[in-house]
Write a structure and sequence with these properties.
Blueprint: E1 6-11, H1 15-26, E2 31-37, H2 40-49, E3 54-58, H3 66-76, E4 81-86, H4 92-97, E5 102-105, H5 110-124, E6 142-147, E7 153-157, E8 163-167, E9 170-174, E10 179-183, H6 186-193, E11 198-202, E12 205-208, E13 214-217, E14 223-226, E15 232-235, H7 237-247
Parallel strand pairs: 1-2, 1-3, 3-4, 4-5
Antiparallel strand pairs: 6-7, 6-10, 8-9, 8-12, 9-10, 11-12, 13-14, 14-15
Length: about 250
Amino acid sequence: MTPACLSVLAVDDELPQLEDLARMLRGNPRVAEVKTAASGDEAVAIASRRGFDAIFLDVRMPRLNGLDLGRKLRCCAHSASLVFVSGFDASAAAVSELRAVDFLTKPVSTQRLDEALRRVSALATGAPRLRPGRDQDDTGDVIAVEHVSEGTTRLLETGSILYAKSYGDYVRLFTATDRYLLRATLNHVEERLASQGFRRVHRQYLAHLTRAAEVRRAINGTALLVYENGGRVPVARRHAAEIRRQLRP
C-alpha cells in the first residue's frame, strides 16, 4: 500500500468541478491533504503561505487563467509539481515551458489522476521520473500531445518516442505502445529532438536511431529501420549507407 504523503492544492473557478476534483484527490491513497482555491488570486495567496507537493490547475479561469497562474506560482511555489486540468487544449509550448508533469482532460478519470499522482510522488521522493517504455538517458523533456485513440491530451516524455511521421501540419509520434498527435511540422520536431538522438531519415520520417531494433537493406539502395512496436521506418537512399554504419555493432 502506498503511504499517503502528498499535499495538493486544487484550483478551479467552477465550484462543482472543484469539489469533484478535491473529492477524487482525497480518495487517492497517495494524497494526505487537499486544499482548494476558487480563483487564481486565492491560489497565489494560499501557495505563498505554505508549500505543496502538487498544484492541480484549471486552464480556463477568468482574469488569471491557469497558464498565467502557473507562471506566478513558479515564483511562490517553485518546488510544487504543476498538473493542468481542462476541457480544452492548452498551448503545448506554454505547458512545456512551465515543466508541468501532466495534463488531464475533463472529465478526469480515476486512472489518469492516479497516473499524474504517481509522477508527482516520484518527483517528491527524488525517484527517477516515470516513463512509458524503456528507461532512457534523456533530459526528461516533455511535450504536450494528443492521444490518438483516447482523444485526450497529456504530456509525453520525449525519450519514449521511437519515431515520428509527418502529416502536413501535424506529426504523429510513435512509442512502444501508443500513438500521439502533435500540431507541428516535422522540421519543428526535428529541431526540438535533434539533441536526443533523433535523425531525419526520410522526408516524412524522423527516427530515434538508438531505439531501432534492426536495420534492413531494401531495394534501390534504401533501407528499413525496424522498431520494437513492429513499426518500420523507410530510410532514403542518400541516408542509408551512413545509417547502416552508425548502427553497425
